[in-house]
């Protein structure tokens, strides 16, 4: 990581995980969502560290978009957790949309981190 901001974000994300596992009492669903969204965002932003990628390239903005989508899926799950439980198995369209986005992110970042082109 070349960017000091990204280094600090990764550091504080790691400290947050340690805090949550040792001291905090938050929902497992929240912790899993934050874990997923945070690591997807860090992975997407790390891809922009390549010398060939500048703000003028489409790849730069795709990575920014993927990071934003990862954070939005996390926020959706946290903010609408009670509504999701209240509906039980009756999903609404937004549940399907955010679920498909999360699955797509999981596939994309698995592809990126395992080296499969």
Automatic annotation (TrEMBL):
Keywords noted in UniProt: Membrane, Transmembrane, Transmembrane helix
Listed transmembrane segments: 5-24, 30-48, 60-79, 91-110
UniProt keyword annotation of S-adenosyl-L-methionine present: no
Entry keyword Membrane: yes
Protein name: C4-dicarboxylate ABC transporter permease
Higher taxonomy: Bacteria, Pseudomonadati, Pseudomonadota, Gammaproteobacteria, SAR86 cluster
